[in-house]
């Protein structure tokens, strides 16, 4: 792999080829042939404990990300510890040393990330028929869209979506499953 690096012999940026890439990164100038060390920009990785709430259970994982990355409540990140399943999660709380909670922090300062899975979620649906309400838990992809007026099925019951409530309290006409707290519907 060739890249432009400053050559101390040529006194300019020239094409270089990696000769050795381990503890010491050695490169060779393609113009003058000089072999010299060069610094690798290596990001310090921070180990993070991640608690993932998914459906009715929680999982504990440990991941490593660059220590300088800024994490914020509401951000979505990919959790892949190389052992368990890969998950897309939303950060719900950031815990620093001593149990202190913050809305944002550098990864190197974080002790535990509290998250919820958003790649696959359960949407709670309440369907009303003749004065009786029945609740259902419907599995859905986090990016699946629900809209007022949609005709859907819960169990063996068809219903029309009448109202959607989001996690932040709003009631829009359309939303992604990962944002929804509850859907109310009328049986057909």
Automatic annotation (TrEMBL):
This protein's name: Archaeal Zn-finger protein
InterPro entries (UniProt xref): Znf_CPxCG-like (IPR012041)
Domain of life: Archaea
Pfam family, one: CPxCG_zf
